[in-house]
Amino acid sequence: MILSMTGFGRGSAISSNKKIIVDIKSLNSKQLDLSMRVPSCFKEVELESRARITPRVERGKVELNAFTEQISDEAPVKINTSVLAGYKAQLDNLAVQLGIETPADWFSTLLRLPDALKADSAELSDEDVNAFKEAIDDALDQLILFRIAEGRKLYSFFISKIENIFSLLEEVTPYEEERVPKIKARLEEQLSRLSSMEYDRGRLEQELIFYLEKLDVTEEKTRLRAHLNYFLETMGDADGEIPKQGQGKKLGFIAQEMGREINTLGSKSNHAAMQKIVVKMKDELEQIKEQVLNVL
User: Fold this and answer.
1) How far apart are CA 203 and CA 191, in angstroms?
2) pLDDT mean over 107-126
3) How far apart are alpha carbons 9 and 142 in whole angstroms?
4) Which has the higher per-residue pLDDT, 36 or 69?
5) Residue 214 confidence (pLDDT)
6) pLDDT tens figures, 41-63
7) pLDDT at 195 over 90
8) Torsions phi, psi of 73, nearest 5?
9) CA distance 53 to 62
10) Alpha helices in 193-271 (DSSP H)
11) pLDDT at 157 over 90
């Protein structure tokens, strides 16, 4: 089966005083582009978290946002008592030196000064770290489930497009069979007008065979069928085992090869109806190429 690079997952976990919520979303990208926004208290485990996330998302533009909610009666920030005491002592001395009155409302004055409040980040416990990791794992599980669901949609889309190309390829056969006699008759008609010129009939037959062989599209049709089957084989079953390595790039390479055969088929067609069929094939293939970019 195939997975989509598009996905979203939310996970949460609870420690003794915090509820930790992690959101992970991913979009398509050629490589892994992981950005993380986490509370300052979890900065120390950010690198470890990246190592935890990377092997599971593999590829894509991935954004992780984490935030915490306080669930205990303990305040999320604390008053920096020692700093405020130092500020007050300095202001008292300044008031004496300058002969001015001290503030009437000490609290409003002191709490506006730098570092009056401090976040409870220094007291990050092992329980908080484990809850953070649990929330990440939960979000990753939800993200992968989302990718699987989107992968099934892509699978159905690719199946329909490949079947359309197979069907269009079969439509080429009757035009291909009627094309050779018409080309041969047209060449002979043009040569018959050259009544004053003598030519070797044997050599003419040889050149005609050589020309018609150049217009033969049997090999292109055979290779295109092989590429179409290989594309289906690479995708696997809709509910099959998830591949260890992403198949998106491989499917992209196969689609490129399909495009080469379709282009060659068009250049050799020399028939208006065949060229219309080739245009339809190209349209189906372009839709495949657009969506292949979303495959992991």
Assistant:
1) 13
2) 68
3) 4
4) 36
5) 67
6) 888 888 888 999 999 998 899 99
7) no
8) -75, -15
9) 10
10) 201-215, 218-235, 248-269
11) yes
Q: Give me the percent of the chain exceeding a pLDDT of 90.
A: 34
The SS3 assignment for 290 reads helix
Name which of 259, 264, 265, 261 is nearest 282 in CA terms: 259
Q: Contact, 238 vs 152, CB < 8 A?
A: yes
Compute φ and ψ for 92, nearest 5 degrees: -60, -45
Rounded Cα gap, residues 269 and 276, in angstroms: 10
The two three-digit tokens of residue 20, written as one number: 């930790």
- DSSP character string of 272-285: HHHHHHHHHHHHHH
| Coil/strand/helix, residue 79 | strand
DSSP letter assigned to residue 74? S
Give 3-state DSSP helix, strand, coil % of the chain, rounded to 5. 60, 15, 25
Within 10 Å of residue 46's Cβ, how many Cβ atoms?
13
pLDDT at 244 over 90: no
Per DSSP bridges, beta strands 60-70 and 77-79 are unpaired
